[in-house]
Amino acid sequence: MGAGTIEPVSTSRLSRWRSTILADITPLKVSVDFRRIFFAQLVSQIGTQMTAVVLLLQIFDISRSNLATGLVGAVAFLPMVIGGLYGGSIADARDRRAVAYWTTTGLAGFSLVFAGMAYSDLRLLWPYYVLIAGQTWLSAIAQPTRMAIIPRLVGAELLPAANALAQISWNIGFTLGPVIGATIAKSYGFGWAYLVDALSFAGAV
Description:
Structural class: mainly alpha
């Protein structure tokens, strides 16, 4: 092949590139239940990440301390590990839809309590730490439970694509949530950000 000549790209190679870059959205097309849970979890994940960043902003606003703000991660670590270790077992031992319902309802309740604390201008830090630990534990149970429901919604041949879409949903929420949360908190206050998060769980319940 001479210099400057461009080798034509085969159709099969284009197909492989397309399949690598673009997600297979077939589960969204063929399963109404999966489509419902995908968009519900997308919205609730955005809300969850909103609250995660708003809590950091609020604790720093109260304490003006980097140490106090950094303690949020330390407080959340152990509940996250425990919930992650036993979340799958809890989902397997009980009805998964019921576990998903009650954990989602509980997470919405935590957000409402955070909103109440923000509107009451509570300046004590320890109640926030206690609630963060509980919220993290519940969230660590909710996540594997939601993932465990997916095989019941799609066939085995669509399961890899469905799991990939669920991960994409999580990534979108992880990216957009902090931006939206910080914007709402700055424009309307911490309480409003928590209320929006609580409402985001409505579609997931």
